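<amino_acid_chain>
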Amino acid sequence: MSTAPQPIPLPVTAVTCLEDRAHVERTARLVLEAGVQRLRLGPVSALAVDRTLHAELTASGAATVLDVRIVRTWQPRGPLPTDEDSAPHRRMRFLEAELEALSRRRDRLRTRLDVLGRLAADLLREIGEGAGSGESEGPRWHRELDRVDAERDSHGERLRAVEAESATVQAELGELQRAVDLAGEEPAELIGHVELTVEAAAAGPAGLRLSHLTPCALWRPAYRAVLDGDALTLETDAMVWQRTGEDWSDVRLTLSTARSALAAEPPRLGEDRLTLQDRSSAERRTVDVEVREEDVADLGPAPVLGLPGVDDGGEVRVLHAPAPVSVPADGRAHRVPLSAFTTTAGTEYACAPELSPLVTQVVRFDNRSGHALLAGPVDLVLRSGYSGRGALEFTAPGAAAELAFGSRDDHRVVRRTEEIRDTSTITQRTLVTRTVRLHLSRFSTPGEHGDQTVVLRERIPVSEVSAVQTRVREDACSPVPDEVDADGIARWNVVLPPGGRRTVTLVYELSASAKVTGL
């Protein structure tokens, strides 16, 4: 068996990105010799999972794969960049040249100061000799001394500036030298190669397809919604991260929600015994109730912080990138476009005062993308530009979805509640009357026209036992709710003109018998 001295390139041509790993496919054209031979291909990522390695041959003659394995070796890093193409080295040469020029300037200034010092000494000696011999040239002597002192001060300041600049350049050069030294001390790199043993009946060309799983790769869905009047454009993207050790260049990218790491074993069944027992006399006399909070989806989508996990609705979903994709192995998020569609959307200004005093613009539309919309964050864009980020829940193809495009600054709602509790002395029946007043205001700009409809929602407790009854007092409500659904959500469609104000009053009663406790 012969081993090729140079490895045969084995590039990545297709990738199926899963929730927490990737299935990588590679292809290569081989020239086989007759008989058994061993081929060395690669390099490949050292993170490839050995037990998932699979190779297939397509040849004109009979060819069989006898063995395929990954061999990993430690190799030193490649040579460091030369001075011609290395920015740190070019900066070091510039700093060294500047430091040399500063050194020459410093030497010239010191020489000049030394000459000025000797000149001052000669001038003082001349003054002493002239004064001893009876000469009197005071104005000239003062003028000459002042000129020499001014020259010495000027050159001294320039020398101090040059020394300070030289110290700064020396410090920067030292830091850069330490950084270059640290960059040169890189550890060896773990490189993987594929060793393929094949047996061919005759010499000739053959095609190789090799696949394997690799960790350190994942994807999550992300969206961009653009609202322009009644038209909504929803762009579906995939955020792809990978740090597998090799770049994916112009590959066919497939995105799947399959979870290959989950165990497929059925759960164990254990015994679950049910026993009956008689109620005590105290339990027969009383009915213990409690108030329980329930989430209702009609109040609006729940906020999701960051990118959620892949929610596929319990069924594996597969999405395809329409064009070849390049994803470098830098561990950063890369946005891959998948699909886009434009549809007519319905807009509603809704408010749930118990949760928030803000009026939110809610947009409802149908999923026309042709595939399921997985749960993920949405970048919201209005006609004026980017407005914020929302969340999209899992939506089946053709199903209705909704997005919250932020609050309206010109609307405010103030909520006030009152509660009156009364117990009848004859029947011992408890009656709780609750009054909720909602004050809705619209602050319009000058010149604004047109009415605005705001949908108000307020919840009413729903009883699950006959001992507790709930009733809306329509005679005291102003106005009467337009609708009260089975979940106890009362709804009003309030029409507000520019600068208008409305007050909505809701009154309901909770009636409990004497046996009820805990209300």
The radius of gyration is 41 Å. Helices lie at 87-132, 138-184, 281-285.
